[in-house]
Amino acid sequence: MLGVGAVEETVRCLAKLERVSAQAIGTVLTGLHRRGMVEREPDPADGRRVITGITEAGKAALVNREQVITERLAAAVDSLTPEERERLAAALPVLVVLAERL
Fold first, then answer.
1. At 8, which helix (H) or strand (E)?
2. Taking a C-beta distance cutoff of 8 angstroms, is the pair 80, 90 a contact?
3. Which residues, listed in sequence order, are joined to residue 40 by a DSSP beta bridge?
4. pTM score, two decimals?
5. Reduced to 3 states, what is the DSSP secondary structure of residue 6?
6. pLDDT tens digits along 21-31
7. Contact criterion met (CB below 8 Å) for 13 and 59
8. What does the alpha-carbon distance between residue 2 and residue 38 come to, in Å, rounded to a whole number?
9. Is the pLDDT of residue 7 over 70?
10. Mean local confidence (pLDDT), 3-25
11. Rounded Cα distance, 76 and 20, in Å
12. SS3 state of residue 19
């Protein structure tokens, strides 16, 4: 059963959020469900819909993923030459604008 206060969404909402088709997000959710990362159950208000929520294992995987990405990014920046780092620093304002538009 989905926990109280859990972030719960329908496939349609998740697809809209990720800007992909409901079919694509459904495929991803099926794989995550098999791995125990999300739980799915019928919407008590509308039995035709399925509510999806993240499990504790899913939350832990997200934290680990963020740590791995941060470590990889730090290593990549460390590998840059001083000139490349200067160019990257100069490009950061534009990269921030792009990130905000995503």
1. strand 8-10
2. no
3. 52
4. 0.60
5. coil
6. 989 988 999 99
7. no
8. 9
9. no
10. 76
11. 29
12. coil
